[in-house]
Design brief:
Layout: H1 15-25, E1 32-36, H2 44-49, E2 53-58, H3 61-73, E3 80-84, H4 90-93, E4 100-106, H5 115-125, E5 126-137, H6 139-148, H7 152-159, H8 176-185, E6 189-196, H9 200-203, H10 211-222, E7 233-239
Parallel strand pairs: 1-2, 1-4, 2-3, 4-5
Antiparallel strand pairs: 5-7, 6-7
Length: about 240
């Protein structure tokens, strides 16, 4: 199978996600991947370079155009398919094209009308024994980020989950318990959850920070408490029974 670029070329902030996916996508066997909301191809193109076939469902025509260009440039256009549509209507968008081995739902549940409906649709598109990769924004991480940026009122609003801050886009944040409840409601079995970007975002602008050191630290903290609890995001792999 084709090989993915060295790990040091991948963003440090997603190191924990790629580490969790590696047993599924790095085992040398091609799998069918569904990427819901991944229109620009940040995950789809690297996965296609590993030899997997990827169907991306996204409501944005512009994002899908970017996906097409990126896939063609990478020489994997034949393994990447873009479909315009919404995640909560996958049964219509994909018709009978189900039975995926792996589905990605990254930074999607924050903005959909109903996260439970969308996740049930994704679960239904995955074969028995297949897996769903979920990445969402973490409420605790958002609270700390707003506080450190000098916006205590915003941090308090996020802490109380009082809804959108005036003038800012509506974006949900999740707690680990809330994410696990969604997974259970979708009929999926949750694996261990990890923190995403525990320190990567904080160190991104740090002068002299070695990217490989940041990545190593990120992986060390991603599954460790209390560090994972204050990460920018949460990630887990869930399995469809």
């Amino acid at each position: 199978m084709p090989t993915e670029p060295p790990a040091e070329q991948l963003p440090a902030r997603t190191a924990a996600v790629w580490a969790a996916l590696d047993p599924v996508v790095g085992a040398g066997t091609a799998v069918r991947v569904l990427d819901v909301g991944g229109g620009s191809g940040m995950f789809a193109v690297p996965l296609a370079r590993l030899g997997h076939t990827v169907t991306v469902v996204d409501p944005s025509a512009d994002a899908l155009a970017t996906l097409h260009r990126r896939a063609q440039t990478a020489g994997v256009g034949q393994r990447v398919r873009g479909v315009q549509g919404d995640g909560d209507l996958l049964h219509e968008v994909l018709a009978d094209d189900g039975g995926y081995d792996l589905a990605l739902c990254h930074s999607v549940l924050e903005v959909v009308d109903d996260p439970a409906v969308t996740l049930r649709e994704i679960s239904g598109a995955v074969r028995s024994g297949g897996q769903v990769s979920l990445a969402v924004a973490n409420r605790a991480g958002a609270v700390f980020a707003r506080a450190l940026a000098g916006h205590p009122a915003d941090a308090l609003a996020l802490l109380a989950d009082r809804g959108p801050i005036p003038g800012r886009p509506v974006r949900r944040r999740f707690t680990p318990d809330a994410l696990l409840a969604l997974v259970d409601g979708a009929g999926l079995d949750a694996g261990a959850w990890r923190g995403v970007s525990v320190v990567a975002d904080l160190l991104e602008a740090a002068s002299g920070a070695d990217p490989s050191d940041v990545r190593t630290l990120e992986l060390a903290l991603a599954g460790a408490s209390p560090y994972r609890e204050v990460a920018a995001g949460l990630h887990l792999l869930a399995t469809r029974p």
